[in-house]
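I am sending you the entry underneath: sequence plus fold tokens. Let me know what the token row says about the fold:
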Amino acid sequence: IERFKIPVQHFSELLLGMEMDLEKKRYETFDELYSYCFRAAAAVGLICIEIFGYSEEAAHQHAEELGIAMQLTNILRDVKEDMTRGRIYLPGEDLRRFNYSEAELSNYEFTPAFRELMEFQVERAREYFQRSEALFPLIDTETRYCPVLLKRLYSKILDRIELQGYDVFSRRPALSRFQKICMLLAATRDARKARRAASKK
């Protein structure tokens, strides 16, 4: 906190997100869910960019968008796991919009309505990932590929959900160790190229 002048408020938000996990089991609107995602993930991103270093204040907004996208992805990946704990992070307004009931969710019923619901949620997460792309050029070259790698990994989870036909009940969407290693190596290679290019300027 002292070295990188990180606002203490970001840590307070993170603690509030942990409290929400203990106390709140349902989210009626996306606005409510956004507040949770901000505290659970975007606050971490805002902490990290102070350590990574950035060139413009706009980095704050785009770091927030990346955190929201990542937390939404976590939610979609873990729909079944969260339900076993009595938690539903999918907004109630969206369940009603696609005519999919909480009872169906508790029974892990994969229906056309659920597929449409998940397709909508995946697209929402992708929109936040797209907005977050503007973050990476603002991050210092030496540290840029840490958030780049996270974005790539989490985007691949969304790809996996789509490849499974949005059925997150029969199998938890996840990347293999081999896929993760390949993506890590690719990010390392890209980081080296970026450093060499920066050193020539």
Summary: The mean pLDDT is 94. The first helix runs from residue 8 to 23.
